[in-house]
Design goal:
Elements lengths: L12 E4 L2 E3 L8 E4 L4 E4 L7 H10 L7 E5 L5 H4 L2 H8 L2 E5 L3 H4 L23 E3 L4 E4 L2 E7 L8 E8 L4 E6 L10 H7 L4 H13 L6 E3 L8 H9 L11 H23 L1
Helix pairs in contact: 6-8
């Protein structure tokens, strides 16, 4: 991640229907226009907030219409800007229950130190969510699915978007990074290796979810920039790839298994 906030700027755009990208290259932020206000999916780094707000204005999305901030997990790159946004907009916050002490500062596990940063904009989550919970606002109903591993409370989200004529199912993955499931990190903080089994089980459980539009909470996960280029070239359905979600879940599982195998070889 670049330490220069402006170095990660990405122009905002409509992904499809009532779904938008307003984030940055270091960490993705998405907006759903529910007709009754906006749902933000991850707020990003605190030092990138001005870019997210700028992008919302460029798309005609008034930040004061932000009602919910829904987090994939409790790491600084996905919730660092939340405290400021809440103070600005009064938005209600949602987070997997197992990560609640990450964001309120009781557990120093936000990955800030590993990034050479400090996390001091703590907050108490308004709504703690668990597997199967539903988040509703306007025309949008989001189903939360537990995806533990990267963090204990990582959540994947599934919801419909529409362009007025068609409806597409969206899947946002909760967090696939092996960086917090590697031996070095787990031993450093005295964490259980069970997170690995939990992650593998989650990938097996979620790989068959029907998803038309796959979102990543980092741009490289779902090739955001490549698809955006196709959008600019006239392919309005560039983000619609019905088989991408299942393939990604299989890849994420294998990526972790490869890491575990490498650790065994190095022992």
């Amino acid at each position: 991640m670049s330490k220069l906030p402006w170095a990660g700027y990405v122009k905002p755009f409509r992904i499809w229907g009532n779904l938008y990208f307003v984030g940055t290259e270091p960490a993705s932020t998405h907006i759903i226009d529910t007709g009754s206000g906006y749902i933000m999916l991850d707020s990003g780094y605190q030092h990138s907030l001005y870019l997210v707000l700028h992008n919302m204005y460029l798309l005609g999305l008034d930040p004061l219409r932000l009602k919910y901030i829904v987090h994939t997990h409790g790491h600084i790159d996905h919730m660092g800007a939340t405290r400021a946004l809440v103070e600005l907009t009064g938005a209600k916050t949602f987070l997997g229950e197992a990560d609640k002490d990450y964001v309120n500062g009781k557990l120093d596990l936000t990955y800030a130190k590993e990034l050479g940063m400090e996390f001091n904009e703590t907050f108490e989550t308004d709504v703690l969510i668990n597997d199967g919970d539903i988040i509703k606002l306007g025309n949008t109903e989001i189903t939360a699915k537990a995806t533990p591993g990267h963090t204990p409370g990582a959540m994947s989200y599934f919801f419909d978007v529409t362009d007025g004529k068609r409806t597409m199912r969206v899947g946002l993955h909760g967090g696939m990074g092996t960086n917090t499931m590697c031996r070095k990190f787990l031993d450093k903080y005295g964490l259980s290796y069970d997170c690995r089994d939990n992650f593998i089980a989650a990938m097996d459980r979620l790989k068959d979810e029907p998803v038309d539009i796959f979102l990543g909470n980092h741009m490289q996960h779902n090739k955001t920039l490549e698809k955006y280029k196709l959008l600019t070239e006239g392919n309005s359905d560039a983000f619609i790839e019905p088989f991408e979600w299942g393939e990604y879940c299989k890849w994420a599982k294998q990526n972790l298994l490869n890491m575990i195998a490498d650790e065994k070889e190095q022992s």
